[in-house]
Write a structure and sequence with these properties.
single chain, Rossmann fold, 10 strands
């Protein structure tokens, strides 16, 4: 997957995200990309309006865990009840495990504000690292949990640049992560 460097205007959200360089998610590499920065700078908008449409356009299968994961649990339980022959789990950990197991064809896992449910992320990484090539994780922590040493980590830092004609201009810069 490739996302071009330069300006990405998201009019409905009043955002102009400027990528300092092209983002490449190579099929042969394994990466963990953290989106970091203050609230309201467009990390979720970047995922919903740029990353997800790019994945769909390029027909790359993905799993997306949104910010409001607890709301998604009801939908997840219903979907699993229809699509699995097993008893649907009751705990969040069981539900995630069953969901991930049904999506072994996915190559990208996106978790927005995953630090809200970090307790489950270690299990999620161990369940999915055999088939996921790229993790895209939104975090507000300086040292977020990651999938492990076999993945190359990088951060995309969202910073306020200016406000012009009611459009918030945000620079998105890639930095190395240990």
């Amino acid at each position: 997957m490739r996302i071009a460097k330069g300006s990405h205007l998201i009019k409905k959200r009043g955002l102009d995200l400027h990528l300092s360089q092209e983002l490449i998610f190579d099929e042969k590499s394994f990466t963990c990309t953290y989106l970091t920065g203050a609230n309201g700078l467009g990390k979720t908008s970047f995922i919903e309006k740029i990353v997800v449409p790019t994945l769909k356009q390029q027909q790359i299968p993905f799993i997306y865990i949104g910010q409001d994961f607890r709301i998604q649990l009801y939908t997840l339980r219903a979907a699993l009840a229809v699509t699995t022959k097993k008893k649907v789990g009751q705990s969040i950990s069981e539900l995630l495990s069953q969901w991930v197991d049904q999506h072994r064809h996915a190559r990208v896992l996106i978790a927005d504000e995953f630090d809200k449910y970090t307790n489950y992320m270690t299990d999620l990484f161990s369940l999915s690292c055999a088939f996921i090539h790229h993790y895209i994780l939104v975090s507000h922590h300086d040292n977020p949990v990651g999938p492990g040493a076999s993945f190359t980590s990088r951060s995309l830092v969202f910073r306020r640049a200016a406000t012009v004609d009611t459009v918030l201009k945000v620079t998105v810069e890639e930095t190395a992560t240990c």
